[in-house]
Amino acid sequence: MTQRVIVAVTGPRRGAFGPRFLVGCALRWYGAHALQVRPGDDLSQLHYDAVVVTGGHDIDPVIYAAEPEVHPKYDAERDALELAVIDDALARNLPLLGICRGAQLLNARRGGNLFQELKSHRKMTSNRWTILPLKTLNIEPSSRLWRLLMSDNCRINSLHNQAIDKVGEGLIVSGRDLDGIVQAVEDPRKPFLLGVQWHPEFLLFYRRQRLLFQALIQAVRRAAD
């Protein structure tokens, strides 16, 4: 009997019920168990086979050695927890999917930085937040994301006001929006290391979006074979 895959799903100490629930639904769809991990949890006491770092507040720019240009609400204890989880996943080669701030935090941990505001960088796309798939993602040919989705483009949503600027060490850009803003990064040297700027958990009615979670789980099972 195949052992059930356990996926750590990170988030804030309180709130974010909707995204956590939907990520859990996607993981259960493909036979995995979602282990909700919050600030204050003792990571040394937890067992997990893969990681999903979910979206939420902007990350503190001190993480990528920058002065604040805007003043959103930061969550220092969540930053610390998720950095520790990312470090653990990287050290153990665990499959990892970063969603929105999760992609940004992964990029910062690899030495990259962020645009702290996007309005001035947008010409072709709206700066409006929406869970609806109203933006176009252009996917880099031959990337892991392209091989996974088997398409040059697809529709995505947008719930972010920051995005990746300088790409972190070992990461490559695998998707951009119509303004050229980075929407996906990956590390082709890792079994599965992908960061997406949009929120696939709000688009589970699209099979392509569910494939991101399926691929994460499949990477765990391949490593166990």
Automatic annotation (TrEMBL):
GO terms in the biological process aspect are: polyamine catabolic process
Question: Could you tell me which species this protein originates from?
Answer: Halopseudomonas laoshanensis
List, alphabetically, the InterPro entries matched. Answer: Class_I_gatase-like, Peptidase_C26, PuuD-like
Q: Name one GO cellular component term.
A: cytosol
> Which GO terms label this protein's molecular function in UniProt?
gamma-glutamyl-gamma-aminobutyrate hydrolase activity
- What keywords appear on the UniProt entry? Hydrolase
> What protein am I looking at?
Gamma-glutamyl-gamma-aminobutyrate hydrolase family protein
